[in-house]
Amino acid sequence: MTAAARPKARTAAAAKRDDGGCALGPREFKRIAALVHAESGIFLPEGKVDLVYARLVRRLRALGFDSFRDYCALVEGEGGIDERQGMIAALTTNVTSFYREPHHFKHLRESILPDLAARARAGGRVRLWSAGCSRGHEPYSLAMTVLSVLPDAAERDVRILATDIDPHVLAEGRAGSYEREVLADAPPAEVARHFEPADGRGGASHLAAGGALRRLVAFRELNLVGEWPMSGLFDVVFCRNVAIYFDEATQARLWMRFAERTRPGGTLCIGHSERLSGPALGRYSGVGVTTYRLDGGRPA
After folding, report:
1. 82: annotated active-site residue
2. Taking the alpha carbons of 226, 230, 233, 237 in that order, is the dihedral positive or negative?
3. CA within 20 to 30 Å of 84's CA: 164, 218, 222, 298, which one?
4. Is 55 designated active site?
5. Among 22-26, 121-125, 158-162, 249-253, which stretch is predicted with the lowest mean pLDDT?
6. Domain definitions of the chain by residue range
7. Tell me, what DSSP letter sits at residue 280?
8. From 31, 50, 55, 156, active-site residue
């Protein structure tokens, strides 16, 4: 999922550099941290100054800047919207894998999907959301899990929304082409059923998502702390290992926003190091390891 990496704690004074005369001082670090938080919700404490320097000094060089002060002026200005997006993309990393935290997919397959499949067969609507989908490993894992229970899901009113703030990783997800070893953690039978040798670049060393997966999954750019343009409610929401990079207040708001966009009885899966907080604690009941059901109705 898209999230900021965590380097060893350092002070802002340690950001001074003499390579090419470019330095990230405390004032510019605070300006960048404030802008990143306002734009994406990501919290950058002073201990991440080295990460910010290492990631952004490449942006400065590419743009021809020789100071972080000039760079801050660009990203804070009206004409800096494109570079703000590039800055946030540079400051996030995408650690993901197929069927990561497999207990969630087991719970989905055994406890959630049988009822959802019955609804779909009866002509009902089923929606799942991978929030912070990164390069597509999670939504395609969700799609394979759905297809293992409902093989004709792509021909029914079943869809998986895959969102991320980074357009570059979304493009990789849409391409749906992965090195064979990347798929090693996925069930071999599901890989054989839903992936095929990739044409063109990558050739035999890559596998591409097949038609059923592509019909089920829609990739869209979305900032979780911005506006959510989707209509309708979700039956299942996966938002894993994303909220840990937000401050407590932002996390609490995010959990409540998910609750407001989930069917009563719907399911929320979060990361292994995350916990629900704030008013959402009164809306959800734990039903498994970092797995929660929204109260107020029968399970989805």
Report:
1. no
2. negative
3. 218
4. yes
5. 22-26
6. 2-93, 102-294
7. G
8. 55
Query: Please, which contacts does 20-26 make with residues 24 or more away whose CB atoms are closer than 8 Å?
Result: 20/61, 20/66, 21/66, 22/57, 22/60, 22/66, 22/67, 22/68, 23/67, 23/68, 24/49, 24/52, 24/53, 24/56, 24/57, 24/68, 25/68
CB 90 within 8 A of CB 58: yes
CATH topology of domain 102-294: Rossmann fold (3.40.50)
Residue of 251, 73, 96 whose CA lies nearest to 166: 96
What does pTM read for this prediction? 0.80
Active-site hit among 164, 166, 235, 283: 164
In this chain, the answer to whether the domains covering 2-93 and 102-294 adopt an identical fold is no
Q: What is the pLDDT of residues 129-141, one digit of tens each?
A: 999 999 999 999 9
> Options 3.30.70.1130, 3.40.630.30, 1.10.155.10, 2.40.10.10; which CATH number does 2-93 get?
1.10.155.10
Tokens linked to 100: 């990561």
